[in-house]
Each structure stands twice: as structure tokens, then as C-alpha cells.
Amino acid sequence: MALQISATNPEHPALLLALPWQLPLEEWPEHYLVPLPRGISRHVVRYARAGDEVVAVKELAERPAVREFELLRDLDRLGIPTVDALAVVTGRTTADGAPLEPVLITRHLRGSLPYRSMFETTMRPATMHRLMDALAVLLVRLHLAGFAWGDCSLSNTLFRRDAGAYAAYLVDAETGELHPRLSDGQRDYDLDLARVNISGELLDLEASGALHPSVDPIEFGMEICKRYNGLWEELTRKSVYPAGKYHYIDRRIRRLNDLGFDVAEMQIAHSSNGDTVTFVPKVVDAGHHQRQLLRLTGLDTEENQARRLLNDLESWMATQDDYGPGDPLAARPEVLAHRWVRDVFRPTVRAVPLEVRGAMDPAELYHQLLEHRWYLSERAQHDIGLDTAVEDYLQNVLPKVREGLPEPQDAGLAPPV
């Protein structure tokens, strides 16, 4: 069989053809590879260069490769945070004509890390709690979309910084199944697998000496269940309110928004005697603040980053009263948001040279600068301004962040409660 590349973008096959498909993946020469940290996988996985892209290449049988490729594309269409599926390569043979396994190619998630790389220096329990939060949110989002993962674990997840927290992305969908709706049994099965897998992964870290001594692997395995159940209950529970107290419904919706979710559809029913109203959020979409920021500014960020940037945008808007009374359009939120991007966000980010900011994306960098401004202003007992914060950040914080990607608190940043 001739080499075949099934890709999502017509430009990708030409770039991918330059890779040494006639060699087993574990034998690829170093000059094709990118030395990025990899998680544990049952398959051979390598990061490689494809033009200006960095791609993850995974060897596996053709049927599961094609199936996972389609599942990842389906999840992307549903708005679930996953790696981008780029191509499946089949018909690989050695120079002697011996068959080689097909490969699945995904785009490297910039700024992400597998969990084992995050434990190269002993991770504090507080950081591990944030990882559990991120994984619980991912699992809830998958289940709301009707996706049964079948192998939820830290190993099958990538983590990106998200304004003092983390965002979790699904990496391995090989065992997953997409349904119109999941039963309680399917959800419980996924959750039980997550508990067992996470406890096992942490026990492995404990044996290698990479786990904080105060962390109990079994207890942390149970924590994913607690966090998942609490979030699932908040998103799906039925609420009964006194008739006429419609502000209770509004308060419930705002609480869901604060968690980062939008209510796209709801069911409201009056009791037979008219004394009470029952409210059920029927469809809940994640990314409330992401969509709001994207609509206003065009910036595409993680959810917590969006929340942080929106707060800064609203604070800045409150100070802008220099538009003329004869120009009411100048006071519209979308116009002010455009000015904020042009006059505040972009100049602040660009003040940090591209060559020294590393892999940190602009939204996360801006968040770090806001946190540093807060820290310096608290110490000085007055607002020191963004320009001074940027200058101090360049001199005293960024070198430490680039060396070991420490937590914000480790870098001298004390985020507000």
C-alpha cells in the first residue's frame, strides 16, 4: 500500500511528507525531533517539526488511529478542550518493504505540560488541588457533551497555566465513546477509573520520591470524585423556589456564570397549586467569560484568564470619560474594549520582549503583570502603575519564571484572595 496522509488542512500533507515515514518512530533521527517533555503512553510518541508547526506523532494500529482522529475532531466541534487532530498517516513501510504501524498526528499544545514534568520539583499540595479542579472541570465538560472517556487519568491530560489556576486538555481519546447522553452508570464508571488511575499515578510518584510528603495518594484519588460531584450537582440540580421570586433563578444563573458556564437552555415549571417554581438548567456550555471576552475584544484565552482580563477591562472602562457627549458611539462597550486592546493590553504585552517571554502566551503574561502590579502596589500602599510593574517584572520575576516555571507565589507574586 502506498503512503497515505489524511489531513484536516490541505497544507499539512506537504509539510508532513518531509518526515522519515520509512523509519519506526523510535528510530527517528534527532534533527527531526523537538525535545519537549512527554507523558507516559502505551504507544511510542515523539514530538517532531513540520514546517513551523510542532506536532505530536503517535504510532498505533490503523483502526484506532482513524477512530481517535475522528473523535478528537468531534470533541473540537463540541468546544471541548482537546489537542488538535491534524492527520492520520497509513501505508507506511520500511525501505525493505516491511509494514510499519500507522500514526496519528496532533498539534502540540503550546505552553502545556504533562503532569510528570510538573513533578520534577516537588509540587506543593495547593498546586495539586488546582490540578484536581482542572481535571474535574474537564471531566464534567466531557460528560455534559455525552463523551465517556474510558481512561481518565493525569497521564492522558495536558495542563496549561490559566491565571493562577490550570486548564486541562484531553490528550488520549482512544478509549472514548460519544453518545447523545450519558447514563449515571457511565459517568460513575469514568469517575471510578479516574480515582483508581490518579491514586496509582501518585503512588508511582511517591515511590520515586517526587511526591510532597504531606500528600496521601489515595486521598487525592478520592478528591477528584468530591470535586466532580460538587460541580456536577451545581450544574445539573433541580431548584425549587417560591412563586414570584424570579430573582432566585437569576442568582442561580449568575452563580453558574461565575463557575465559567453558560445556561443555553432552561426548563421552568410552576407547581399545580402555583406556590413554587421548579428550575432546571437543561444545557450548560462552558466558557462563559471566554466568549464574553472574545466577543468584546477578539482575544481567545483560557476561562480564568478571560475572567481576569474582563475585570481589568471593566476597571479601565470606568475611568474613561474623555469621549465627547456628541459621540455616544464612543461610550459603547465594544468601542471601549477595542481601545483597551489597542492602548493597554497590546502595549503592555509588547513591553516584554518576545525573545525573553518564552512560551508564555499573551493573556497569561498580562495576568502575571497584573498580579505583579497588585503585589508591588500592596507593598507601596499605592497604585504603582503598569509601566513600573512591567519594568520590575522584567528585572526580578521573568528570569525565575523562565528557569523553572514556578508557581506565581514562588516568583514573589502574592495574588489577591
Key phrases:
417 residues; alpha+beta; 5-stranded antiparallel sheet; 3-stranded antiparallel sheet; 45% helix; globular; disordered C terminus
Task: Explain how this protein is built.
β12 (261-270) and β13 (276-286) form a beta hairpin. Helices cover 45% and strands 17% of the residues. The protein is built from 14 helices and 13 strands. It is α+β, with helices and mostly antiparallel strands. The chain has helices spanning 12-16, 62-77, 115-118, 125-144, 184-208, 217-236, 246-258, 288-297, 303-318, 333-350, 354-357, 362-380, 386-396, 398-404, and strands spanning 4-7, 45-50, 53-59, 85-90, 103-107, 112-114, 147-148, 157-162, 165-170, 177-178, 239-242, 261-270, 276-286. The chain starts with a strand and ends in a 13-residue tail after the last helix. The strands form four sheets. The protein has a five-stranded antiparallel β-sheet. The protein has a three-stranded antiparallel β-sheet with strand order 6-8-9. A three-stranded antiparallel β-sheet has the order 11-13-12, covered by helices on one side.
